[in-house]
């Protein structure tokens, strides 16, 4: 990679502008998640939705990821319209969440949420594909860009944590909507990323990834590790409330995990291990994390365990993105992201619905099931390690591999 002094000043300015605007967009998009993930279930409970319905409703994003999402990412790729798709999906999300906030009956709320998630869930895979193309084009690092999303998640979670003790929980949905509107506004600032190396992708080329055992091993193993967080996302806040933790304590526990994640993203350019090893480390760490969480530890121990999120989520994410850049041609990156999101969605929907049923009967023991999922992902990526060679067109430079860090 050339040093900054060897890059023309105009190119440096374009690169920095791209990075700054993308970081801002990552921040607002994950700000929505920061308010939504910890406190949307709390809002559902506040309006009278029971645990079984909460599990079903929380499975909706996962289901749309393996049904609708691949079509959206594939369409955006064929039309060379990543930026336009990102703008459209964020505006649709803001409108859809506004509709969700007006529903209080389980079925009507479920249907409104389905419609919203059909266009909300493609946003992050589209953004990651857009980011990885920028990584290849401008020689950037993925981790330092992505950490702004995690930082915004912290701010969103803390803000909701403060508000949940001040406003009625039934009003939390409007905090989520407000951040979604902000995300839609910042999407308009995204820089066009025209690719002069566009290639026509034939039907055979589009199917090639799904016939590649190594690619399938990457996305399934990573999905198993990431989807082992399903019970955590759906029931951690509810269970902590039942244990007597206040809203600020709950937000603090979420924040500790995301701060660890941010640290991992910040130092990721220094990682020298093969990406598959990072995914395996994430999976093994999740086995330990969920096994301890199942024991309902005291808040001090729980705070330490939450630091493991930097490994269970953060290092898994860095390893997955690095492995995809190594293995997937740049022109097929949106499709690759779509397939990965679809695999995650399929597994996450099963995990979310299953966790609702298991939690309703066995409580925190649901985390043992999550630990088994994560362990399976670690074993799978280890078994596939010899297949994970860089794709000859995995970088825009025409064959040299650059990790997104």
Structure description:
With 405 residues, the chain is mainly α. It has a single domain (12-192, 205-387), classed as Growth Hormone, Chain: A (Up-down Bundle), CATH 1.20.1250.20. 74% of the residues lie in helices and 0% in strands. It has 18 helices and no strands. It has helices at residues 9-46, 51-58, 60-67, 69-78, 82-100, 106-120, 123-138, 142-163, 172-187, 203-208, 213-227, 230-242, 247-267, 275-293, 299-306, 309-327, 333-362, 366-383. Helix 11 packs parallel to helix 14 (275-293), helix 11 (213-227) runs antiparallel to helix 16 and helix 14 runs antiparallel to helix 18.
As for the CATH topology, it is: Growth Hormone, Chain: A
Task: Name the CATH class.
Answer: Mainly Alpha
- The structural domain count equals 1
Number of strand segments: 0
| N-to-C SSE string, H for helix and E for strand | HHHHHHHHHHHHHHHHHH
Task: Identify the overall geometry.
Answer: globular
Q: Could you state the CATH homologous superfamily? A: MFS general substrate transporter like domains
Mean pLDDT: 85
Spans where pLDDT lies below 50 across 5 or more residues: 1-5, 196-204, 395-405
Strand content: under 5%
Helix percent reads over 70%
User: What does the main sheet amount to?
Assistant: none
What Rg do the Cα atoms give?
A: 20 Å
Question: What's the SSE blueprint?
Answer:
Blueprint: H1 9-46, H2 51-58, H3 60-67, H4 69-78, H5 82-100, H6 106-120, H7 123-138, H8 142-163, H9 172-187, H10 203-208, H11 213-227, H12 230-242, H13 247-267, H14 275-293, H15 299-306, H16 309-327, H17 333-362, H18 366-383
């Amino acid at each position: 990679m050339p040093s900054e002094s060897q890059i023309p000043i105009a190119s440096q300015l374009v690169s920095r502008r791209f990075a700054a605007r993308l970081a801002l967009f990552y921040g607002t998009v994950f700000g929505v998640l920061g308010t939504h993930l910890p406190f949307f279930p709390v809002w559902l409970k506040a309006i009278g939705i029971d645990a079984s319905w909460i599990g079903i409703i929380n499975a909706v994003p996962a289901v749309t990821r393996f049904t609708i999402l691949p079509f959206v990412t594939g369409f955006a790729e064929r039309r060379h319209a990543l930026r336009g798709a990102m703008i459209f999906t964020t505006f649709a999300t803001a409108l859809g969440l506004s509709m969700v906030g007006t529903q209080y009956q389980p079925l009507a709320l479920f249907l409104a949420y389905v419609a919203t998630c059909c266009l909300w869930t493609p946003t992050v895979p589209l953004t990651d594909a857009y980011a990885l193309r920028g990584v290849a084009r401008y020689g950037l690092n993925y981790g330092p860009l992505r950490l702004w999303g995690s930082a915004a998640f912290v701010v969103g979670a803390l803000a909701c944590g403060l508000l949940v003790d001040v406003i009625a929980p039934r009003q939390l949905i409007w905090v989520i909507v407000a951040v979604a509107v902000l995300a839609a506004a910042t999407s308009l600032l995204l820089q066009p990323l025209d690719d002069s190396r566009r290639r026509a992708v034939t039907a055979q080329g589009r199917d090639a990834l799904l016939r590649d055992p190594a690619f399938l091993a990457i996305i399934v193993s990573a999905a198993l590790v990431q989807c082992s967080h399903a019970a955590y996302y759906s029931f951690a806040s509810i269970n902590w409330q039942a244990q007597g933790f206040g809203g600020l304590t709950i937000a603090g526990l979420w924040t500790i995990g995301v701060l660890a994640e941010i640290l991992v993203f910040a130092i990721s350019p220094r990682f020298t291990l093969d990406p598959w090893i990072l995914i395996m480390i994430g999976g093994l760490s999740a086995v330990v994390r969920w096994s301890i969480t199942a024991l309902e530890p005291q808040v001090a121990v729980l705070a330490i365990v939450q630091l493991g999120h930097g490994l269970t989520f953060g290092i898994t994410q860095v390893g997955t993105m690095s492995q995809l850049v190594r293995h997937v041609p740049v022109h097929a990156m949106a499709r690759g992201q779509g397939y990965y999101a679809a695999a995650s969605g399929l597994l996450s929907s099963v995990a979310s619905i299953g966790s609702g049923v298991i939690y309703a009967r066995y409580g925190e023991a649901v985390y043992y099931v999550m630990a088994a999922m994560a362990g399976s992902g670690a074993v799978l990526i280890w078994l596939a390690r010899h297949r994970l060679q860089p794709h000859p067109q995995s970088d825009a430079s025409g064959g040299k591999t650059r990790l997104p860090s």
